[in-house]
Structures are given as structure tokens and as C-alpha cells.
Specification:
The protein is mainly α. 65% of the residues lie in helices and 9% in strands. Strands 1-2 form a two-stranded parallel ribbon. The N and C termini lie far apart (34 Å).
Length: 111
């Protein structure tokens, strides 16, 4: 994983302009969401399938307060906030995420 992360960082350095475009697109998306907050909450509430929200308590990009608010506004969702984990739980604690997913899938989609 470390080797792959280093290789990805090196590749991103060689494509700085592409990262800037991706950052700009992400920023614009966030601005649309912030500007249409009510519509955003309505769209989330309209989801009719089981949802598992997994987040890291130490996420610096998506505040844990935002995850808790989303969970509170959508009580049908299953929410797991992982202590000591940042923005990429699937990379930071993959075994924990896989176990959580396996259990959740078993509860919702077992035959």
C-alpha cells in the first residue's frame, strides 16, 4: 500500500494541471450543494434503498458533525463513524471497513 501511495503521489506531481481541474470541479460541486442545501437534504431523504454511511471521526475534509447531521436527518440509514480514522477509511483500516460492509450486507441482502 505504501509503495502504491508513493507511486500515486509521484504521478500526481507530473499531472499537476489535471489535479487542479479536478479540485476546481470538486469545489464547484460543493458550492452547488451549499447553495442548494434544502434540495440536497431532500435528495438524501428521497433515497429508498438501504444506506450505509461510513466515515472517519478525524476526517479533515468531511467534518464528523456533517456526518452526524446526515445520520440524524436520515434515521433509516446505518451509520458507522470510525474513531481515529480520517477521510479514507477503506485505506486506513481496510479490515474494519470490510468487516462492517460484510455484516451490513448480510443484514440487508442475505438470501
Amino acid at each position: 500500500m505504501l509503495t502504491a501511495s508513493i507511486a500515486l503521489a509521484a504521478e500526481r506531481q507530473n499531472h499537476g494541471h489535471a489535479d487542479a481541474a479536478a479540485f476546481l470541479a470538486a469545489s464547484r460541486s460543493l458550492m452547488r450543494v451549499a447553495g442548494l442545501r434544502r434540495r440536497y437534504w431532500e435528495m438524501m431523504a428521497a433515497v429508498q434503498v438501504p444506506v450505509l454511511l461510513i466515515g472517519g471521526e478525524d476526517d479533515r475534509l468531511v467534518p464528523v458533525a456533517s456526518m452526524r447531521l446526515a445520520a440524524a436527518r436520515n434515521p433509516r440509514w446505518d451509520t458507522v463513524i470510525l474513531p481515529g480514522v480520517g477521510h479514507t477509511p477503506q485505506l486506513e483500516v481496510p479490515d474494519n471497513v470490510i468487516g462492517t460492509l460484510r455484516d451490513w450486507l448480510g443484514q440487508h441482502f442475505s438470501s
